[in-house]
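STRUCTURE:
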């Protein structure tokens, strides 16, 4: 069998040790012309052995030992050693090993890949960084129709871009400044294809989208609006609870969760408990009803109905509660167009919010990846376009009129994709569950 599968080498012998394979070879073709002047007429002038790492075999590290000759040119008088085919220009590794390291490090930790290859973790980091640069240059993401923008705090706020329609990670930016976001959006191909942009109430996102995507509809996520109602109700609860005795306070076990829960979601027991508390504390009952009325604004089917519901809610707030629910009222006043845009399309940013939790978990499992490494692992993970190229379960080859050479050729045909949408969100829990991210700082 051809152990190497490299036509330019002639196999001499293989030495297997406890943890390594040593494959001794020589070059198949002899050098005939000078590397410096290009003329024919060279004579042998010594030998030496060169070693380059290769793909792991049978769970062991492997290296190819090549017996190379030094040559002397009769014309220019210079000496040179034979070039090794299939060796990477920057590392003493085969080209296929460099590619394999990059693909494996996307899904695994540097330390585990380094153990398989038999090199230091620093070498894996260096090879992976070069692999990432090559992939970024070749990647061409399909511009989403529905763009989600949010942030995640990893040492500092990082902007996260998603393709909400395809449920994929689109990009992660180093910060959430308006200039950074606008610059990234300006580099999108076919920007006019973006119809919706869902954001939270961070003004730089709105300004960047307005400057670069003037034709897109900007929608403020519903969650960021209604959570202000919960915050106001929670503030009233804390003030009342602070004046209670420890014995009475112990009787209000889980009161926070019941007060923040929607009325129609309460079961009979919870409804009875909440009713008894609201009867005892009128201020809390008032805040709870205002919160529920604010939630019902989003039950409206049209922009006009929502506007009427909001005006009715605002007029119903007692004077003593206006300061408590002031943040909610100011949000509607300052973000009126973006909030009411929800009632035209019912678009939310829930998938981007869910992605932030997965990114945070990924970073925690990895014990704090660098921003560049975390971005690479997320963007280069297998996306939806690779579902068709997933490795199938092994099947026996039935009797077919195919030679082994033809079968091998068929297996090596690359798969081409029309476009890349990004990393599928549903892939990330699977990666975390299997432990592929693991620990280790890339």
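SEQUENCE:
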């Amino acid at each position: 069998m051809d152990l190497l599968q490299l036509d330019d080498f002639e196999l001499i012998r293989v030495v297997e040790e406890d943890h390594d394979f040593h494959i001794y070879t020589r070059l198949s073709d002899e050098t005939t012309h000078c590397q410096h002047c290009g003329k024919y007429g060279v004579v042998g002038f010594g030998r030496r052995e060169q070693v380059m790492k290769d793909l792991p075999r049978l769970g062991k590290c492997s290296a190819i030992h090549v017996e190379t000759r030094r040559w002397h040119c009769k014309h220019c008088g210079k000496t040179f050693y034979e070039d090794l085919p299939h060796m990477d220009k920057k590392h003493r590794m085969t080209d296929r090993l460099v590619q394999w390291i990059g693909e494996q490090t996307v899904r695994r930790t540097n330390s585990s890949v380094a153990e398989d290859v038999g090199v230091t973790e620093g070498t894996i980091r260096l090879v992976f960084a070069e692999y990432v640069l090559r992939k970024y240059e070749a990647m061409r993401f399909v511009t989403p129709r529905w763009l989600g923008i949010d942030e995640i705090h990893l040492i500092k706020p990082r902007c996260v871009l998603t393709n909400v329609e395809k449920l994929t990670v689109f990009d992660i930016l180093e910060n959430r400044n308006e200039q950074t976001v606008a610059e990234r959006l300006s580099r999108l191909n076919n920007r006019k294809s973006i119809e919706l942009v869902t954001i939270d109430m961070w003004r730089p996102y709105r300004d960047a989208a307005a400057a670069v995507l003037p034709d897109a509809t900007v929608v403020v996520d519903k969650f960021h609006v209604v959570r202000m109602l919960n915050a106001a109700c929670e503030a009233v609860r804390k003030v009342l609870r602070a004046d209670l005795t420890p014995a009475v306070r112990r009787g209000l076990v889980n009161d926070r969760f019941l007060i923040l829960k929607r009325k129609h979601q309460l079961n009979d027991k919870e409804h009875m408990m909440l009713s008894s508390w609201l009867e005892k504390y009128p201020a809390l009952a008032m805040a709870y009803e205002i919160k529920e009325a604010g939630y019902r604004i989003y039950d409206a089917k049209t922009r006009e109905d929502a506007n009427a519901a909001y005006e009715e809610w605002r007029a119903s707030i007692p004077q003593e509660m206006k300061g408590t629910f002031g943040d909610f009222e100011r949000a509607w006043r300052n973000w009126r167009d973006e909030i009411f845009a929800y009632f035209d399309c019912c678009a939310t940013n829930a998938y981007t919010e869910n992605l932030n939790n997965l990114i945070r978990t990924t970073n925690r499992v990895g014990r704090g990846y660098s921003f560049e490494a975390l971005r690479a692992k997320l963007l280069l993970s297998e996306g939806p376009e690779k579902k068709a190229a997933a490795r199938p379960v092994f099947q026996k080859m039935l009797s077919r009129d195919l030679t082994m050479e033809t079968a091998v050729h068929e297996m090596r045909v690359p798969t081409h994709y029309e476009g890349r949408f990004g990393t599928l969100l549903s892939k990330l829990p699977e990666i975390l569950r299997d432990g592929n991210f693991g620990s280790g700082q890339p």
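REMARK: The chain has 18 helices and eleven strands.
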